[in-house]
Amino acid sequence: MRAKVHVFLKSGVLDVQGKAVEHALHGLGWTGVEHVRVGKTIEFDLKADDPAAAEAEVKAMCDKLLANTVIESYRVELA
Amino acid sequence: MKAAVIVFPGSNCDRDCKVAVERSTGAKVEMVWHGETELPKGLDLIVLPGGFSYGDYLRCGAMAALSPVMAEVKAAAERGVATVGICNGFQVLTEVGLLPGALLRNEKLKYVCKPIALEVTNAQTRFTAGYQGRREVAMTVGNGEGNYFADEETLDRLEGEGQVVFRYLENPNGSARDIAGIINKAGNVLGMMPHPDRAFEPELGSADGAILFQSALASA
After folding, report:
1. How far is B152 from chain A (nearest CA, A)?
2. Is B143 in contact with B191 (CB distance < 8 Å)?
3. Which residues does B contribute to its contact with A (CB < 8 Å)?
4. Do B214 and B129 touch, CB atoms closer than 8 A?
5. Three-state secondary structure call for residue B57
6. What is the ipTM of this complex?
7. At B30, phi and psi to the nearest 5?
8. What letter does residue A61 receive in the DSSP assignment?
9. Among the options B13, B17, B60, B87, which is catalytic?
10. CB of B61 closer than 8 Å to CB of B91
């Protein structure tokens, strides 16, 4: 299975990179852009047959290493 | 007196910490590689140095927090051994869960490197007793991700329980409530973004960092 983990700063945490990108997009004329967030995607192959078990495993990886849940939230996609 | 400086791949203040602790306290300082599964016996102080452990990959301090030696550091800290995390070391302490909160990118996205004035917010800790009630000390900062963050409830608790040890007089990085350094509830684990290891002799602009190491070892 291919796992994709999307990690973003939580909505209550100021994303200064997002702000800077938003400001730059405004400068280029895209004034309708709002609430830019910069995150990261982590992808990997995972040996697993059962999607539910795989999801639980990837979530455990997120809690242990891939995200810092004090400041970040994550979303897991499996395909 | 015996201290250890933990060395991660990418640490760059490890030698500074060794020299600072040795010259300010006379303690014997051992360098301990991150892959070790045992700490030297009879430690009075553990220092997690500044730098860019594991290249700051994923998140500052995240990979270092999972280093083999950190299980031992955690166990020692939980036994009450004085533990100081400076800069990247502070980030490691939050990542490993010994201190609450996290360090975010600086508010202005700028790496700040300069001398800085700090308020000694709690002078009753084992690390700050040596300031003998002095309210202001001088050190330097050098960080890109030194913007301390915790939820409001945690910040209230830290303030209420005297766990805020240092505050910036002029906040350089957007840190919540001007926090520069915090201590755990038990009072033996200190994390701070400013560098006492770069302020241990008057020739460096300040010797206030030496007092911190002296206090830590005097209380051991």
Report:
1. 11
2. no
3. 58-59, 62, 66, 94-95, 100-102, 104-109, 149-151, 174
4. no
5. coil
6. 0.88
7. -105, 140
8. H
9. B87
10. yes
Give dist(CA B89, CA B49) in Å, integer: 5
- Helix (H) or strand (E) holding A9, with range, is strand A2-9
pLDDT by residue (tens digit) across B106-161? 999 999 999 999 999 999 999 999 999 899 999 999 999 999 999 999 999 999 99
Task: Tell me the chain B residues in contact with residue A23 when contact means C-beta distances shorter than 8 Å.
Answer: none
Total-model pTM: 0.95
Sign of CA dihedral B121, B156, B98, B124: positive
CB contact under 8 A, B109 and A13: no
Tokens matching residue B179: 């926090």
The DSSP 8-state label assigned to residue A45 in this structure reads E
Which residues of chain B lie closer than 8 angstroms to A21, CB-CB? none
Q: Is B34 a catalytic residue?
A: no
Structure letter (DSSP) for residue B198 = G
Cα–Cα distances in Å, from A40 out to A4, A25, B63? Answer: 10, 19, 17
Closest CA to B73 of B102, B103, B39: B39
What span, in angstroms and rounded, lies between the C-alpha atoms of A16 and A18?
5
